[in-house]
Design a protein that fits this description.
- 2 copies of one chain form a homodimer.
- Chain A has 272 residues and is α/β, with parallel strands linked by helices.
- Helix content of chain A is 30%, strand content 17%.
- Chain A folds into 2 domains: 159 residues, 3-Layer(aba) Sandwich (Aspartate Aminotransferase, domain 2); 102 residues, Alpha-Beta Complex (Aspartate Aminotransferase, domain 1), CATH 3.90.1150.10.
- Chain A is globular.
- The first copy, chain A, starts with a strand and ends with a helix.
Chain lengths: 272, 272
């Protein structure tokens, strides 16, 4: 009997955390990684060293720190595709049939933290390792209508309100258009100035998290200070990449992004 | 090297669930059980077959279904005492120093479901099995101020409001007096009628969950129907024990219990 193993695609900090965790339970084969280029792109899927005998292929559909995002489900053949969609679920329509398993923490686009949604293909249910905690055993959860233990009722209630809000916005197609418009406002500006820059490969840019850099890093603190005065918080990039990062999840309005881009232009005028 | 094992005290449904789960990770020695008498009492601690080499002794401090409760921490010598306090934490003062580990879901006396509190003795941190999910590894949680992953922020906020409410009530001593008064109203009545009875040994009766039986089970449905008309819901006992059960957690008022006892008396008058 061959030791079970899984293929992982490493596109950043969240992929790395998943790989580290998975190594407790199986052999991990990193089938592709963009670590060498600082996680500024997603490895082209035709370069992935996938093994048809892998138990599954794992991706993180959106990396919040590096700001890279899959814009379609990669083709991984017959092997089940597993996706951590914590930071972009509900930001756009997805073809669920292309995935074996989707999991996502609620706290970005779905509701309060403390709730995780999993969507598991029927035939993948019932294969838990004997050491799996019962609450994480999809068969036990499915057999109990996701109420094996007392579920986080209030978080589920709030998620229900968010689903209703999404429907009122026009559903996932409408929210995707909304998100494309917001991200486009920032990326278009970044591509037409030398004062700021986007470190991410154009085709892999995230619609949720937009990292950008000031050409002159010495101005970073002044940029953040001015943003704070306009009530724009949390714009500092993660310490592992530096620079700035605009997180523009579903709840961020177009007006909010317009204020940011307006501020960026003003700051450039004053300091450029 | 001896296989690690743990001593468990089986006092009902929640103990049984813990035993079942623990068997995935170690050998379980059931050092005492009240199963033979239908979990209507807690085995006297001087009859427990404890092993001084056990990794820990596990108890469930309050069994919601059977309605038995420890009224003090049992003496288990040098072995760490581990307690599932999900259904009676914050209902009374406890001497935390007598426990190696306390864990409790928030949903009874602390706040919304989806939050679990653990209190771990410093020297017991850092002994997780390699297969422990990182979020359940107390060392990783302690090293990250309980924010290894995004914590359930809203549930923590509500728990904070409950802690403030408890302080306003006079703290845990006052809430214990309140709980004793409530439970006393029901138990005193149960002990002075033959129409109803308490199945639980007097010294082990829970202050949180009061199971009781009608002498004539044929009246059960009528009792529940009348209670419902007075907006008293969820009085039906768990199917494994039958009869009735009044759950009177911290949030239940004395007036609420008085209405219940008044109804019980009326019902006895009409049907006794």
């Amino acid at each position: 009997m061959v030791e079970p193993f899984a293929d992982y695609i490493n596109t950043g900090e969240w992929s790395k955390k998943s790989i580290k965790e998975a190594k407790k339970y199986c052999t991990v084969n990193v089938a592709a990684t963009s670590e060498a280029t600082g996680f500024t792109s997603i490895p082209k899927s035709d370069t992935w060293k996938l093994d048809p005998n892998a138990a599954y292929v794992h991706i993180c559909s959106n990396e919040t720190i590096g700001g890279v995002q899959y814009h379609s489900a990669p083709n991984v053949g017959e092997v089940p595709l597993v996706a951590d969609m914590s930071s972009d679920i509900l930001s756009r329509p997805i073809d669920v049939s292309k995935y074996g398993l989707i999991y996502a923490g609620a706290q970005k686009n779905m509701g309060p933290s403390g709730l995780t949604v999993t969507i598991v293909r029927d035939d993948l249910i019932g294969q838990a390792l004997p050491i799996t905690p019962s609450a994480f055993d999809y068969k036990q959860q499915a057999d109990n209508d996701s109420m094996f233990n007392t579920p986080p009722t209030y978080a589920i209630y709030i998620a229900g309100l968010v689903f209703q809000w999404l429907k009122k916005q026009g559903g996932l197609k409408a929210i995707e258009a909304h998100n494309r418009k917001k991200a486009g406002l920032i990326y278009d500006y970044l591509d037409n100035t030398t004062f700021y820059s986007s470190p991410v490969a154009r085709e892999d840019r995230s619609l949720m998290n937009v990292p950008f850099k000031l050409k002159n890093e010495a101005l970073d603190e002044a940029f953040l200070k001015g943003a704070k005065e306009l009530n724009m918080l949390q714009l500092k990039g993660h310490r592992s990449v530096g620079g700035m990062r605009a997180s523009i999840y579903n709840a961020m309005s177009i007006e909010g992004v317009e204020v940011l881009v307006g501020y960026m232009k003003d700051f450039e005028k004053k300091n450029g």
